[in-house]
Amino acid sequence: MATIERSLVIVKPDAVQRGLVGEIVGRYEKRGLKIVAMKFEQVSEETAGRHYGEHKGKPFYDGLVSYITSSPSVLMVIEGPDAVNIVRTTNGATKPGEAAPGTIRADFGVTIGRNLVHASDSVESAAREVGIFFGDGGIVEWNRAIDAWIVED
Ligand code: IDP
Ligand code: MG
What we know:
single chain; 153 residues; 7 helices; binds inosine-5'-diphosphate; four-stranded antiparallel β-sheet; binds magnesium ion; Alpha-Beta Plaits
């Protein structure tokens, strides 16, 4: 059986402003992933700088920080077998124009600068990003009654 992983997911400000929170969160739930943390918050510049530290110095960095801090986001930790890869394939390619139909970024987006969602790109990034947003707690360990119908033993 695949390893259980966690991914830090952000439903970004454009998705919140457009009223797509339910639609987007529902896609992760329906795929079979499990929510273990969730909060609604306007990300500060300091937190955005830590989260997107790998992009500092890139031409799009300032725009990225002002986008992510411009309005509230939904921050989540999502858990499941291969969760890092499964969340990223649910989100689709970074550029909506290159994202496969049926993915969040293809179905709701047209431009890279408003691509609706973030997800960790590796187990190591997930650990770092979960620490940034949920280092003070907020992760709930819980048993989901239908798990046996989603994940085999
Ligand atoms: P990812 O979100 O698919 O992991 P990254 O390359 O890590 O993609 O970039 C982080 C975020 O930075 C993207 O989701 C997007 O919001 C933004 N971004 C990346 N490249 C560009 C760009 O060329 N123009 C504007 N925004 C960009
Ligand atoms: Mg990334």
